[in-house]
């Protein structure tokens, strides 16, 4: 065999081997046993070339596609090259809408700088950061992005996404729980959460402190034995609360284990979660012990003040009574002097002075007495349908002496027809009298006083105007307060206690009216305006019967005067004697009864505060006897409070009159009694 043949045989053998190798490779490739081919050239002059076979990627693609985390491959600009199914779900978008688009459009704008930095850093090494993803439906989702460079093929990054929403939810829950715990630790009120059967599930620190034990898993009512504040000793019934009914502001008491009682405000309401399920009941107990103690203290002080106020009223009433006693005989003396013409002009003048001063004194005493009635609201009105003009005129007349004394010009204007109002004419006259009296008092001699009555907007309006010293603006509202005096520095000769206007306001108010003061300032005069409701808008009709039934003095009567003030009794007896009546006197209760039994008077004028037996006892005794059926009993006293009048009436008096009683009034008393009458 030649060399050439041998070489050809070797080459053939080599080719056969390589063919077998190629056939084996194709079989392996077809059998799926090969992932990649590495082709290197025989001389090793070129680096080997690697060909990855498509079928070899499949498991990896499946792996990536089905993995739990979302992932994607991006270009270094963020354009999505590939993504897995989880990534589609995360964005809630179809893969077609994601691929080829920059991922930036799905990142919440505030997170964009972080994302850009991630892409940059990820090219160098693994980088991760939290950003907020915006889903197709707009929902925002917290995620962690892990980025690392793709080392093969394209220049880009591989993105691994971790959905943080569940983690965040847990964190929030934990934070909520911590907050709830902190609230329960720190809240000042006792807060107790129970299940629907009333077993304590949670309790605040204050609740632990209040009950002095650990209330958890015990029955609420066993640990907190609450009693109703409005019914001490009665346990609070919480059945309705366990049924889910809310309860607000129930005041309860709780005896703490240490023995100290706590006053609490209980509130309860169902604990309902988002789905509407009722998990239990939340109860709050607010400690109001110190509030209650403060209230009790206030109440105690108020009642102390009331007691002081009552004592003051009693004192004023008593003082007025004591001041009236001496006034009564003085007035009687004056009446006697008036009946006997005095020749001496000086004596006449003195008598006039005394008369005026007694009137002034009587007014002061009356005011003093009224103040206690103002304070206790015990002014009783004798309401009737009256012509306001007539009452106003009567008020002006009572102040006439004060007006005349200072030589003021007084003008009165009123509509020609009657102005009907529902009112107590005596009290209205008193109101106008006070206002005109003040106008006279606070106006220099020779001033002008105007009283005008008119109807305005369905109301009767009385204006009392003067040209006097006026009232500063800031005092206009205050002048109606009790004991307020603007011109304290004035000469006190006019007298006054700062009661008149308070009385005016009170009287007008209880008539349903208003009074206000106007003045342009000091020296510019004042105006007081009284407004009263008209008689239901109706302007005509008969006037109500007058309460004061004046009766002409009849024939001589037997009169018994019982008064421990001898002067008063004697003078009254003398006065009645001069009017032609037979009079006897007695100075105490028992001798009054004895004299009455012997004398059988037709009229008894009886003081109340008598030695041994008071006036109430005397009249009760005498009226029980048939021989006094025709006798008229009149209480003549210094006590003018409502309760005094009521007591007189209840004891059997036919009238209750306040001393001093003028002659004119006395004359009206001298008549037989009428059934059921009671005059004050
Ligand atoms: P007083 O007994 O002091 O007159 P009043 O309550 O009647 O008490 O009046 C309160 C105060 O209002 C008076 O002290 C006086 O300063 C002021 N006042 C009342 N009426 C007038 C008026 N017509 N002009 C000026 N001041 C007045």
UniProtKB/TrEMBL annotation:
Residues 558-674 form the Response regulatory domain. Residues 176-215 form the PAS domain. Residues 318-536 form the Histidine kinase domain. Keywords: ATP-binding, Coiled coil, Kinase, Membrane, Nucleotide-binding, Phosphoprotein, Transferase, Two-component regulatory system. Its EC number is 2.7.13.3. It catalyses: ATP + protein L-histidine = ADP + protein N-phospho-L-histidine. Residues 5-32 form a coiled coil. The modification 4-aspartylphosphate is found at residue 607. It is an enzyme of class 2 (transferase). PROSITE patterns: HIS_KIN, PAC, PAS, RESPONSE_REGULATORY. InterPro entries: CheY-like_superfamily, HATPase_C_sf, HATPase_dom, His_kinase_dom, HisK_dim/P_dom, HisK_dim/P_sf, PAS, PAS-assoc_C. GO terms for molecular function: ATP binding; phosphorelay sensor kinase activity. Residues 248-300 form the PAC domain. This is histidine kinase.
